[in-house]
Amino acid sequence: MSVHPSPERPATTDAPARPRRPVGTLDVRAAKGARRIAMLTAYDAPTAALVDACDIDIILVGDSLGMVMLGRDDTLSVTVDEMVHHCRAVTGSVSRALVVADMPFLSYETGPADALRNAGRLFREGGVRAVKLEGAGPCLPQIRALVDAGIPVMGHIGLTPQRVAQLGGFRVQGKTADAARRLLDDALALEQAGCFSVVLECVPSPVAARITAALTIPTIGIGAGPDCDGQVLVLHDMLGLQERMVPRFVKRYANLAGQVTAAVTAYKEEVENGAFPGPEHGFAMPDEELRQLDADGNDAGKE
Ligand code: KIV
User: Fold this and answer.
1) How big is the CA angle at 240 (ends 212 and 266), to the nearest 5 degrees?
2) Model pLDDT for residues 97-140, shown as the tens digit of each residue
3) Cβ pair 62, 70 in contact under 8 A
4) Which residue has a Cα nearest atom 8 of ligand 1?
5) With a 6 A CB cut-off, is 63 part of the ligand 1 pocket?
6) Which of 2, 84, 203, 214 has the least CB density, counted as fewest CB within 10 Å?
7) Whose C-alpha lies nearest to ligand 1, atom 3?
8) Is pLDDT at 301 greater than 60 in this prediction?
């Protein structure tokens, strides 16, 4: 690999303010070298609105929703219909962030025509303004077809969860010089095919740094170290909203599962001991109406 990471990374404190107008793919490209890009997943209206209000640049409706929202073991069974359903919820409540949808497993691998039809659904029915798909080599014709049709594409290489069976599990990718060189070649091919950015998942930090330095489009890292142009995390992981195994690259910024458990337990206890609801949670009725009601009630059945 002949490229080297640039020694200087832009300091986030000196970075220009993020625009309040809607973020487009050109803004994402322009951020490279100017400021770091923050991306998070969201899958429903209320959380997407909260994330958007924090000026997160990109909201990903990831196929991770299969595991995070639907309780499945992996992402492979997620359908285009399910993605459309969640994309509509997200795009309906987001006013600034660029909303990107994952193309689910087997919705694009089968060729450009399928890729166009399915990405078209995510665009037109789901309301997203870009799609992400996993892999490079065999997917390049699909990516070119989407870009030619005006659908911006985010690439995704490294650990690609849709290929977990081939990869032999959720493992760090690109750990040998040969594997790292292949990743760099894939990243360059994705840029060449027209991707506006590329996710690097579970890649050694020095490899991600070299790929980032070699590309003119931004890299968004997840488990790929500090030298990517941006970072992405699964919202539920960083909020500590679920107890399932969380990868070591996740930083937990909150423990919402603990807060939810405490709140639900307190509610259950108060329902059982009668402390909830209190008078402030009920509705009054005019005294006169109440007297009338009781009088009518007392008279009921008398003729
Ligand atoms: O589906 C997803 O959430 C993703 C991110 C982990 C990048 O692809």
Assistant:
1) 165
2) 999 999 999 999 999 999 999 999 999 999 999 999 999 999 99
3) no
4) 62
5) yes
6) 2
7) 62
8) no
Closest ligand 1 atom to residue 134 Cα is 8
Ligand 1 atom with least separation from CA of 234: 3
Distance 112 CA to ligand 1 centre (A): 22
Dist. CA 296 → ligand 1 center (Å): 63
Query: Which tens digit of pLDDT belongs to each residue from 158-168?
Result: 999 999 888 87
Specify the pLDDT at position 3. Answer: 42
- Ligand 1 pocket member 234 (CB < 6 A): yes
Cα 32 to ligand 1 centre (Å):
21
pTM: predicted TM-score of the whole model, two decimal places: 0.90
Scan for tokens 């660029």, then name that residue: 98
Which residue numbers are catalytic?
A: 201
Question: Domains along the chain?
Answer: 25-254 (3.20.20.60), 258-302 (no CATH)
User: Any residues with CB less than 8 A from the CB of 16 and at least 6 apart, and which?
Assistant: 34, 35
